[in-house]
Amino acid sequence: MHKRNPHIARALFWVGLALLILSFYELCVRLDASWGWAKGYFVSHYEAGTPVAIVLKHIPYDNLWRWGYMLLCALLGLWAVASRRTRRSSAMMLFPAAALTVLGFTMRLTIFGDLTRTLKLLPLTAFAALCLLHVLIPLPEPRRQSRPAFAPQPMQTYQRRRRSDRRKAS
Fold this sequence. Notes:
Elements: H1 6-48, H2 52-57, H3 62-82, H4 87-106, H5 114-136, H6 155-169
């Protein structure tokens, strides 16, 4: 199970790269959007003299789950790009890819609606499907090249015999 199908391995590389780029981009966008809100929130409570323990109670922790999800998707894409994409590694990546796909369709990730969420999860779904295909599709048998029945002797062997015959004759 350690061999790989080169076509599926190449497709896994490109889909993994797309997953890595999209996940990292969305993670950066979400962190940037949350940083502005958090900075304003903490500054306003600091000026009011509110204790930090009370401020931490009012932070919306839903964003942390989304950050973690995007970070896990980026790590899965990085794993796909950095690995050799053999059948064994595809079998190991299959469960995390399927779990992140199911989690992605159950989480509300965007404010733009279902179409945008589906387009964002398309690389992850394709990645899970490719991992499954790579595990299930058997590898084609390698072709054996037939050897000719008569193989001529190399020229060096003929010349060596010829020189040895000359030495014996003299």
